[in-house]
């Protein structure tokens, strides 16, 4: 099972000091957080994609390429790549390039995003959001797997004899997660291709998350990719920790109360009761995260949001120390207990390459038997 962090890259005033970091400071902080994630033994760093204030990560592959050069083991991902408003040809080329630079330590999470004005900024109609996601990803999927593509669709100019460059590393496309909070069509899309489904459940109660994941698992099996238990699932989470739970609540409350994403709504206590947000001790984080398996089943990737709401970099790095030293080692051990043998590990470049080689060998044997 993979554990990591994701960032939305918000530039938010620190409510305890009133100071707002500059864009440069926030970008540099995100890099520092990624480097810290590798240092403390996490598996994944993922960044969102936004094109509007107060967010800064408008070019995820640029940031991930820079982080790739400064890390050795960390898997580099997006927590949203806007499949609706980005050109699918550019997506295919950018992430193949990143694959080569990072020696395969790359995957990608496709999503529609949650910022309505982005659509017209890029010449798209938000009312076509689902159709854009379906058509654009169908093209990306082909561009990574076919050396020469002839294609015609509704939302971009046709392609004739087109080759996307560079080709994916070792002929193996990056693993794709389809991220969605509320759209069953996206769960269906992930199941159709046999890709991963990431439910960023940070604002949602357990029953909704369970419903979406069960839909994806059942449709994954329907399309012949394996049993429902073999489907590839990821979850989000939000945590803030201190050794003493009362200290965690006292320190985090002012950030929660004014945060753009959930401030001025439910109380901190209500939000932690109704969603995956955990504010407390490392042991409380462990207990609540382990409970995710009760409604999501055995899953493959757990990402935590930790650097939002104006939290200063020093505090976030302290959080990562706690996560890496006290939380994740226990989660690895406990999630491994009673995990059925048929449940796959999270895919990575090495496992995808081995799977492709095995498929090619089976095809050769079949050809020999049919000859």
UniProtKB/TrEMBL annotation:
<dbReference type="InterPro" id="IPR036661">
    <property type="entry name" value="Luciferase-like_sf"/>
</dbReference>
<dbReference type="InterPro" id="IPR011251">
    <property type="entry name" value="Luciferase-like_dom"/>
</dbReference>
<dbReference type="InterPro" id="IPR023934">
    <property type="entry name" value="LLM_FMN-dep_put"/>
</dbReference>
<feature type="domain" description="Luciferase-like">
    <location>
        <begin position="1"/>
        <end position="295"/>
    </location>
</feature>
<dbReference type="InterPro" id="IPR050766">
    <property type="entry name" value="Bact_Lucif_Oxidored"/>
</dbReference>
<keyword id="KW-0503">Monooxygenase</keyword>
<keyword id="KW-0560">Oxidoreductase</keyword>
<protein>
    <submittedName>
        <fullName>LLM class flavin-dependent oxidoreductase</fullName>
    </submittedName>
</protein>
<dbReference type="Pfam" id="PF00296">
    <property type="entry name" value="Bac_luciferase"/>
</dbReference>
